């Protein structure tokens, strides 16, 4: 799924990646909100007790929406941060701008140097 091989103009690649990241991040947020009630009795219960999740929840508790935005600059923690934001029921008026800015940053990185850098590595 290397966007440099799509053969599409840059704005279309950027827009497609932005839509992909927004769908993925918001789905994870809403999964977290849905799982918040009664997670102890479901298969998702182990997630809210994992070290990664508790680290993400602590980060969100301390930094709030900027933690969501900054998570898009990391590898492997974005999903846990979005899940934690959902479980913690971060208000949408805080979450949506944070995830939109973070998603745009992520899309810019991956539509330009992200996949090239990964291939070079």
How do the helices and strands line up, and which of them pair or pack?
Blueprint: H1 10-36, H2 51-63, H3 65-71, H4 78-87, H5 92-120
Give an account of the 3D structure.
With 121 residues, the chain is mostly helical. The chain is elongated, with a radius of gyration of 15 Å. The two termini are 17 Å apart.
Quaternary structure state of the chains depicted: single chain
Rounded mean pLDDT is 84
> Helicity range of the residues?
over 70%
How many strand units? 0
**Termini Cα gap:** 17 Å
Brief descriptors of the model:
single chain, about 120 residues, mainly alpha, about 0% strand
Short note summarizing the structure:
This protein has five helices and no strands. It is mainly alpha-helical. The mean pLDDT is 84.
